[in-house]
Description:
Helix content is 60%, strand content 3%. The chain is mainly alpha-helical. The protein folds into 3 domains: 1-56, no CATH class; 65-187, Fumarase C, Chain A, domain 2 (Up-down Bundle), CATH 1.20.200; 199-252, Ribonucleotide Reductase Protein R1, domain 1. Strand 1 (18-19), helix 2 and strand 2 (53-54) form a beta-alpha-beta unit. It is elongated and about 90 Å long. It starts with a helix and ends in a 14-residue tail after the last helix.
Amino acid sequence: TLIAAMHRLSEAALLIREINLGATAIGTGIAAHPDYTTKVREHLSSIIGIDLITAPDLVEATQDCGAFVELSGVLKRVAVKLSKVCNDLRLLSSGPRAGFGEINLPARQAGSSIMPGKVNPVVPEVVNQVAFEVIGNDVTVTMAAEAGQLQLNAFEPIIFYSLDNSIRHLTEACRTLEENCVRGITANRDRLKDNVEQSIGLITALNPYIGYSNATEVALEAHRSGRGVYEIVLERGLMAKETLDTVLRPEMLTRPQQILA
């Protein structure tokens, strides 16, 4: 999920390599030495280890903060995806008995002073809050870029402050999520196995074999009786056990498959 977002972030980072040094006040370069732009850019590149690029249109580069807006937007995208992952972790670990309870998150602190044994998903919650901050920072960057007038962008300080916070806090959020949560996640195999076996949704995989009408009847019977789809299909003689076992193998349910003869 995050790989595509990180690729976008790498692409957006290239935008801020483009600089307008030597453009002076409004982008014309007036009062600057003809060699200033090239020499200073090369020297600065050697100091920071990044190949900086002189903007092809210095007037446009002086009046526009679009590169920062785009970078901030991609940071927001990363934050949203990361927060979504944390939402899923919180939901799937809810319980242990009244919730999904499909996975266990490592316990990092006591969850309550009055409820012994209660554990909260504190690391995903921290990352959620970082995401909220990054989303807010993106609004700040957008408004600060919009508030410029002609070639004057007086609000770049808050742009840089917001971008710096977003980058640093997202970096730390990813680190703590990986070190203090993801590494310690375990699966409740029995709960997962039971959920799969009792799922009425299994009937979807059998639709090509037993037909829509039969599949509907099996689904309704499973819902009414609380029995499993597997048991009812065998009981009604709709499929051979060997074929049914093959079709309902987990690896057969996670990607398109050729219908068995």
